[in-house]
Structure formats: structure tokens, C-alpha cells
Amino acid sequence: xxxxxxxxxxxxxxxxxxxxxxxxxxxxxxxxxxxxxxxxxxxxxxxxxxxxxxxxxxxxxxxxxxxxxxxxxxxxxxxxxxxxxxxxxxxxxxxxxxxxxxxxxxxxxxxxxxxxxxxxxxxxxxxxxxxxxxxxxxxxxxxxxxxxxxxxxxxxxxxxxxxxxxxxxxxxxxxxxxxxxxxxxxxxxxxxxxxxxxxxxxxxxxxxxxxxxxxxxxxxxxxxxxxxxxxxxxxxxxxxxxxxxxxxxxxxxxxxxxxxxxxxxxxxxxxxxxxxxxxxxxxxxxxxxxxxxxxxxxxxx
Length: 301
Description:
Layout: E1 6-10, E2 20-22, E3 48-52, H1 59-74, H2 77-102, H3 111-159, H4 175-197, H5 200-217, H6 219-264, H7 268-273, H8 277-300
Parallel strand pairs: 1-3
Antiparallel strand pairs: 2-3
Helix pairs in contact: 2-3, 2-5, 3-4, 5-6, 6-8
């Protein structure tokens, strides 16, 4: 059988970073497993590619990355379902807390009703806190298990490479680069997976519960809100696209400033020998002013 395909898209690396392609070699399955807690993932055909992506907003790149970790994510389905189940309990508790809290002002004169509803509110609030804690605990465990399996798989692929991969006449891959990708980048994958799991389903459940409560309280207000939401969503999408464009220009200005410094500082002897201090100072101030204006525009946006 062949090994699965995995792609880790690395962000915020220098533009000169070379691609690191670790192509898997079809072989017989090994009997070695990490332990009973991390069962081996069913293999698929393909290769592993760890690469530096210059287009972080590419939808195709995101889809390929999600497809690459899909086998590892599916192996944690029990923990994910447990986390989402406790998320549903948390949303249900919140949906019961809101109407009861709204009725407290109308029963201030009734001591028995205050005690009864107060105890119910305390119980619901405690249930929500416990459910939130268990939801995050199960989802974090699933995300960290996924990162551990990815690290084990990548390290196994590294061990299969020949010496030329590491000593390619100056073009080989450094040990620090591999260690950074196996540790830091895998941790970033775990954080991203947790953010997705902790946002998608719980947010949809909470939105549905709040929509149901709004319909019960005031159908007319719910209809008005439903008509306003699409226009707000369009405005947010427009402003988001504009902010991404401004942020990209700001990043490019910082990159141009850094590239200029990397060009001039190593050649400072040539600059002084050619009496180019004034011209280089003017050029640096122009780049610095461009970066200043773009950064201020980004913050004002």
C-alpha cells in the first residue's frame, strides 16, 4: 500500500526559501505504531510535499491542505463529536438562560419565585460553563492528536530520504528548517484545526438557537433582522476585500524596506567609497514614508 498525501502550507517564510518536497516511496506497511492511542491512518496514494506558499489567500491551496489532513481528522471523529455534543448542550443552556433572565424583573416582589428561578439560572449557568470546558477539552485533544500523527508521518518520510537530500552541495535542506516545520508548523496546523472545529458547528447551533428565540419573542423584529443581515454581510464582504488589499500593500512596503536594507548594509563600504550617503538616505526616507502612509491607512481602515 502507498502512503497518504499531506501538504503543509508554510506561512511567513522568506521569499528565498527553497521548496522542500518529500516524496513518499511506496513500500509495504510497517507494523510499527506510535501507541494504542494513535492508531495508524488508512494510507492512500500520493506524496508528501512541505512547501512555502506565496499566495495565502488561494482557495485551491486551502482546499488541498484540508484534503491532505482529512484522513488524520477523520480518525479523531469520536472526540470531535463529543466536543460538538457538549457545544449543543452549551447552546441549549444559553437558550434557556436568556428568557429566564428577562423575567427576573417581573418577579422581584415574589421571594419564592426569585429563589426558584435563581436556582434554575444558577444550574443552567453551571451547566453551560461545564459544557464549554468539555467542548474545548475534547476539540483540543483531537487537534493535538492530529498534529502528533502529522509529525510522526513527516519524520518517517524524512528518515526515508538519502544523504543527497541533506548534503546537496549547498542546496540541501538544513536540520533547523526540518525541525521548524515539524514542530512549529505542525503546532500551527493544530491551532487552525481547533479554531475551525470550535467555530463552525457551535456557531451554527448558537445562531439557530438565537434565531428561534427571536421568532418566539417577536416575529416582526426577526423578519426585519433577516432583511438587514444580507445588506450587512455585503458591506462586511466589501470592506473585508478592501482591507485585504490595503494590508497587502502594507506588507509589500515593509518587504521593500527590508529588501533595501539587506541590499545596502552589506555594501556599506561601497556606498561610502562612492559618496552615495545622501542619495541612499533620500531613497531610504522615501521607502520609510511609503511604509508609514500605508501602515497608517491600514490602521485607519
